[in-house]
């Protein structure tokens, strides 16, 4: 298995163009199934989860053509019975196929996506909402069987603003009779991107980005070309890398309002933030300050997907910081690895207490999940000496080429095969 070899201690400097968003691209690829025709997706990130998703689409009969970051999908003829089980099991996001498949196929079965290291991640909210819209769902032996006679638009009140459930309901609603209203909908920028894509396809949809989304079903759909938004989590990761390692970088292709909460925290830590014509600049020139309390929240709060990376940066801040994880129950796995590098982090339930240390020592550590892996890369950049972060495959699930991006910013990082 490949690893990253990092020689830490270098300050970061330069400009990096941010890849297309993983969490926007995946539902948009799934939504392409709604249309019996062609969808062209630009700025599609070339990451493992996207590759698996495209494999699944191929397995059910979509024709796919890829040229650089542009993906053509022709979903004119699909056969749900041929769904590739191997790829479904490899990615959690396969659950995003549910809404589009319900819209397109009267009967099909999907493997249950199962848990992952950051939490159990149940799909009860997705299933309950789709049942309400008329999908007869049976869960048996790790499979979700869906049988739909009539799909109807409904008023759906979500108990929690689940991102994936909001997306699945939006997709199913495209093919439902009448209007669907989602109350307590997720407000993440990726929801807005999916809505913009659906609008381009011909769907009438209002309220995306607010807690109430309305979708009119059965609008005629057309061939669509769409550019995926920039990845706010990748941008946030690189900004945090510069905050931790020191230096001055500019990230391009991501909107300030998508990472506003992070930028405020960076300023509180003592970084200087400047908006440029092309993007966002961060300068970090001194030892950072700790942050008293950080709570992960749905958007526009601080994103859980940047929690581990922020934790890595806070390991060297002056004083004590506390992070409260409210989205996933088991997202502090990286603390143990950071402690191997000399950090002082204590975890109790959903709270991490981070006491800043003057130095991190280089180490041999193991990525256990995608964002936690990125946090270890940041720690490697912040430590003096040579570190190895094993299991780069986790990081490749979300970062197109983290080595190239960070090398372009002056970091010393490379991929090594085996140990
Ligand atoms: C999406 C993102 C992920 C991000 C997360 C929260 C994608 C592909 N992934 O994941 O990167 O970390 O949003 O911003 O977009 N829950 C239930 N029952 C459900 C659904 C969710 O209990 O049916 C719980 C989850 O276990 C979790 C919380 O709700 O504790 C948030 O999950 P959700 O918003 O659904 O996240 P995902 O869509 O899985």
Describe the structure.
- The protein has about 425 residues and is of the alpha+beta class.
- The protein has two domains: about 5-20 and about 230-415, Enolpyruvate transferase domain (UDP-n-acetylglucosamine1-carboxyvinyl-transferase, Chain), CATH 3.65.10.10; about 20-225, Alpha-beta prism (UDP-n-acetylglucosamine1-carboxyvinyl-transferase, Chain).
- Helix content is about 30%, strand content about 25%.
- It contains 14 helices and 23 strands.
- Helix 4 packs parallel to helix 6.
- The radius of gyration is 21 Å and the shape is elongated.
- It starts with a strand and ends with a strand.
- The chain binds uridine-diphosphate-N-acetylglucosamine.
- Uridine-diphosphate-N-acetylglucosamine binds near residues 93, 123, 124, 126 and 165.
Which architecture of the largest domain per CATH?
Answer: Alpha-beta prism
Uncertain spans: none
CATH class of the largest domain: Alpha Beta
Strand residue percentage? 25-35%
